[in-house]
Model the fold of this input.
Amino acid sequence: MHTLKRLSTWLALVLLTVATVTSASAQSDLSGSWVSIQHEDALERGAGPYQVDYTGLPLNEDGRAKALSYSASQYSMLERQCAFWPPHYIVMGPWGLRIWPELDPVTGRTIAWTIGPFEDRGTTQIWLDGRPHPSENARHLQGGFTTGKWEGNTLVTTTTHMKAGAIRRNGAPSSDQEVMTMRLIRHGDLLTVLTIVEDPIYLTEPYMLSKTFRLSVDAAPLLPTGPPCTPAFEGTKEDGSVPHILPGKNTAVDELMTLYHIPVEAALGGAATMYPEYRKKLKDAFVRPERCPANCGGGPQQPAAPPAPAPTPPR
Amino acid sequence: MKAAYALLAALVFVLPVAVHGQGRGAPQGDGTPGPPTPKSTAPIDLTGYWVAVVTEDWRYRMVTPTKGDYQGVPMNAAARKVADAWNPEADQAAGQRCKSYGAPASLRVPGRIHITWQDDKTLRLDMDTGTQTRVLKFEASVGKSDPSWQGDSTARWEAQPARGAAPGAAGGWLKVTTTNMKAGYLRKNGVPYSEAAGLTEYFDLGTLPNSDQVLVVTAIVDDSRYLTQPFVVSSQFKKQVDGSGWDPTPCSSIW
Done:
C-alpha cells in the first residue's frame, strides 16, 4: 500500500510537470532585438508618407478635417517636440523593437513584457499578471496602459489611456479614446505584429496594420532606451499659436493625383478604400503614369520623369 | 487516498491537451473513428470566405503601379533590368496576363479568398480576383508536375493549442511551402521572381475586439536570382459570413 502511494505521488508529479511544460511551450519567447523589415509601406515607414495620403484609412469626417489641418511644424513647438507617438507607432514607424521580460523576483514567472522606447516612441509595458486597466479618469501616458494574455503562442494585448496623436505620419489623427489591440505572432526568427486600432472619435471602423520584424542575432543589440529628447528652439512663433492649415487651404490635396493619378477622393481615405470593391471603382478612372515620378526605390535608378499631366479626376 | 486525488488532478490537467492534440478521423465503414487526418486534427479552422483588407502598400495594390516604382522591394540589378522592361500590353497579348497572380503575389491582390477542404488531406484556396486556385497538400505529391502560377504547395499544422483552450479558439498555425512556380511578378509593375523562387507562408487566425475573425498571412519569398534578401510581407483578411461579394474576374496584365 505504501509503495502504491509513493508511485501515485511520483506519477502525479510527472504528469503535472508534463502539463506545465506543454502549457509553457504554447507561449513564445519574445525577448531580443527585432529588426524592422521595411518591405511593405516602405515610404510611409521610411522617409514618411505624402502629406495628403489617407488611402486605406477608415477616417470619418472629423478625422479627415483634422488631418487636412495638420502642419508638420507642430512638432517644432517646444511643448510638442518630445510628445512621442502613440504605441501604434510600433508598426507604423521605421524602428526595430527591443523586447524583454519582467520577472517576478520570487517565482521567476514573467509578469510583463516590455517593448522598449526608441526616439519618438514611448515604452510599452504589457502586464500579464491580471491587473485591471485604470479608471477611465486616470492619467493618459505616452505609452498608454497595456495588458496581455496568451492565446496559444500569440500574445494578445490591449492598450488604453494613450495620448492623442497621429495614426499616420502625415497627421491623420488618433484620439485619446483609442483602444489598440496587438497580436504578436512569432514564427522562428520572424515576429509579425498585427495592430487593430479602434477610435470612436476619428475612425468609422477598426483599422488593421501589420508589420514583420526579424530577430537580430549577429548585430549589436538595439538599445533598450532611445536617445534622450531635449526640447530646443526650432524657429516657431513664440506667441503660443499652433501651426495649422485652415479648412480648404491645404495645397497638398492634389499631390497624389499629380504624381500618381490617384483620385483625390481616394487620397482622402475612408473605410471604402480598404476593400477590393474600391479597386473596381477606380478601374475606369485610373490612367497609369508613364514612369514613376518620385520615391521610386529599387536602388540606383534613372532620373525621375517629370510629373505627367493628370487626367480628369473623379473627385 | 491523497495520492489518488493528486493523480486524478494531474490527469484532469493533462488529458485535454492530449485529446485535443490527437483528433479523430472520419468514421469508417463499421462506425469506428478513422485514423487522425490533417482535417480532423486542425488546430484552427481556416475555412470560409475572407476579404482582403488593403491598408498597406495601397498604391501598389489598389491601382496598377507605375513603371519604375519599386519602393520597398529588395531587388538586385538583374531584377531591375527585367522590371524596367515591363510591358503589360505585350504580356497581355502573349497570354501571360496571370504573371502577377502567382502564389508569391496572389494574396496581395485585393479580392476575396475561399478556403475549403478538398479532402481530408488537402486544403483548397480559391481567389476570385484572377480566378486562381491554390492546392495545399498535407502529403507530398508523387512525381513531378509542370511549373504553374500557383506551384506545388506542401502544408502542415504547427504547434499545439494552449492547455485548456477550446478547440479552434487558440493555438497553432498553418505553414505552407511552395516551389515549382512559373516565373512571375511580385508586384504588378513587373518586379520579377524567378522559377527558382521559394515561398514560405504562415497562416494565423485571431479574433478582433468586435468578434470578427481575422486571418494574417506572413509570406516570405526567397529568390537569390532577383532578390538581395528574402521579401517579407504580411497580409490580413476579415472573415465573411457568406459568399456574397464573391466576384470571379480573369487575370489582367493591364489592370
Observations:
- The mean pLDDT of chain B is 88.
